[in-house]
Write a structure and sequence with these properties.
Layout (H helix, E strand, L loop, with lengths): L1 H45 L24 E5 L9 E2 L23 E6 L5 E10 L5 E9 L1 H36 L1 H15 L14 H44 L3 H30 L7 E2 H15 L6 E5 L4 E3 L3 H18 L3 E9 L7 E8 L6 H4 L19 H11 L3 E6 L5 E11 L2
Parallel strand pairs: 7-9
Antiparallel strand pairs: 1-2, 1-5, 3-4, 4-5, 6-8, 8-12, 9-10, 10-12, 11-12
Helix pairs in contact: 1-2, 4-5, 5-9, 6-7, 7-9
Subcellular location: Membrane
Pfam families: HATPase_c
Protein name: histidine kinase
Length: about 450
């Protein structure tokens, strides 16, 4: 749109300049016609004979028509009106002087505008003649300024029509150029959006010579990113194996040892295992969070978790209600969603009296910024408001009678933060606790 604006601005400026130049040229041409009549009068004036005689016709019959707008006048400087000779068209009137009062401009050709006896606007040319002993004379010739105005108006009308058509043509061609010339960039943007949504893994399509290197570099960047992430997965897995195996051996050895030492070793080994799992999961999630093109369908993950926890807590005969649209997707790794939702559903199942509800709310925010809130409600005892932030801290457990390490909710909070999401706890409409997990994602387009 800026190109269209500047095109019209340039046309407007050009129109003003052209109209000004045309008016100047029209005035000069009109002055040249008047100067020809003035020179004719000067020739008649310098011819042999009495300079005060009748100067005769100047070659244009309009000077003979009363108040025709075409006038001439010849007289000595400061001569009384009865001594001034003029055309019959002036009808006894006088033309205004162009020389400023008290200023000696004798010998110059002066041009300007003035009023006729009938108040008509005139264009006047004034020149001086020095006849030596016969004295000085001032010759004034005038024509109607309407002719200049009409000529300029006709030119402006034609110029306006021409420039309007030219502006419309330029605007149309500019829009066509933007639409078709920038189409490769729009295609590239759509390709990146498809990758972001998880519909594609690479930038595909044919691009012009100037844009093709950019598309190739983007593909190279995506490939390099996947290689780095794959190496990170491998290294995290190797580290987990290297740490968990010795810990398992330590625990197994402690099982056969007598006394409090073995119990202490098992206790500390369990803490170490939980910490190792926590930091390894966090490192893996940090490497994977925000990966381009990674999307996970939410409904299958929640359904699988629901079936699992229904079996685990079969003795409680839990009624788990799920209301998740099939089109909902999470912009992240499936394993991370399972980790977050699983911990929250597990926590709800531990405390629920018999009912759990899992629902979702879409938070619109644009194609790339849409989010959703996952609600996990239970009908358990709930938590006081002052204790809700406390349980999100790592290793914090408010009830030691319940199994667990106290890392579940903190893991969920940390994972959500890696995806620029949040975890909040609130009172549930079922009477217990509500966990609100906000994550990037939304309905499938």
């Amino acid at each position: 749109m800026s190109a269209v604006f500047w095109s019209f601005a340039i046309l407007l400026i050009s129109g003003v300049i052209l109209s000004t130049l045309y008016r100047d040229n029209t005035e000069r041409a009109f002055d040249q016609r008047l100067l020809v009549y003035a020179n004719t009068l000067a020739s008649n004036l310098v011819a042999p004979g009495d300079p005060d005689r009748d100067l005769g016709p100047v070659g244009d019959p309009r000077f003979e028509l009363p108040l025709s707008g075409w006038y001439w006048q010849v007289g000595r400087p400061d001569a009384p009106p009865r001594d001034i000779r003029s055309s019959k068209s002036l009808f006894g009137g006088q033309l205004p002087a162009l020389s400023p009062p008290g200023e000696d401009t004798f010998g110059q050709i002066r041009r300007g505008y003035g009023k006729a006896p009938d108040e008509r606007e005139l264009r006047i040319v004034e020149r001086d003649i020095d006849l030596g002993e016969d004295g000085r004379f001032i010759i004034r010739v005038a024509g109607p300024a309407d002719e200049i105005v009409d000529d300029v108006r006709r030119f402006l009308f034609a110029l306006t029509i021409t420039f309007t058509l030219l502006g419309l043509a330029l605007g149309f061609t500019t829009l066509l150029q933007i639409r078709f010339g920038l189409r490769p960039l729009a295609n590239l943007r759509n390709a990146l959006r498809a990758i972001r949504r998880g519909d594609a893994e690479r930038v595909v399509g044919e691009y012009p010579r100037d844009i093709a290197p950019l598309a190739n570099d983007l593909n190279l960047l995506l490939d390099t990113n996947r290689e780095i992430l794959e190496r990170a997965r491998t290294q995290v897995g190797n580290l987990a194996h290297a740490l968990k195996t010795p810990l398992s051996i330590v625990v197994n050895e402690a099982e056969g040892a007598p006394g409090d030492v073995a119990a202490k070793i098992r206790e500390q080994a369990a803490i170490m295992r939980d910490q190792v799992n926590y930091y390894l999961d966090r490192a893996r999630a940090a490497a994977l969070a925000g990966t381009l093109g990674t999307l996970t369908d939410v409904a299958p993950v929640i359904d699988a978790l629901t079936r699992t926890f229904t079996k685990i807590y079969r003795d409680k005969d839990l009624d788990i209600e799920v209301a998740i649209p099939a089109s909902l997707r999470f912009r992240g790794e499936r394993q991370d969603l399972e980790e977050m939702a699983g911990n929250l559903i597990d926590n709800a199942a531990k405390w629920a009296a018999g009912r759990i509800a899992v629902s979702v709310e879409i938070v619109p925010g644009g194609d790339e910024r849409s989010r959703f809130r996952l609600f996990i409600d239970d009908d358990g005892p709930g938590l006081p408001e002052e204790a809700r932030s406390e349980v999100l801290k790592r290793g914090r457990r408010l009830d030691e009678t319940k199994p667990g390490s106290g890392l579940g909710l903190s893991i969920v909070s940390d994972l959500a933060a890696l995806y620029r999401g949040t975890l909040r706890l609130d009172a549930s409409p079922l009477g217990g606790l509500r966990a609100i997990l906000e994550l990037p994602g939304g309905d499938r387009n």
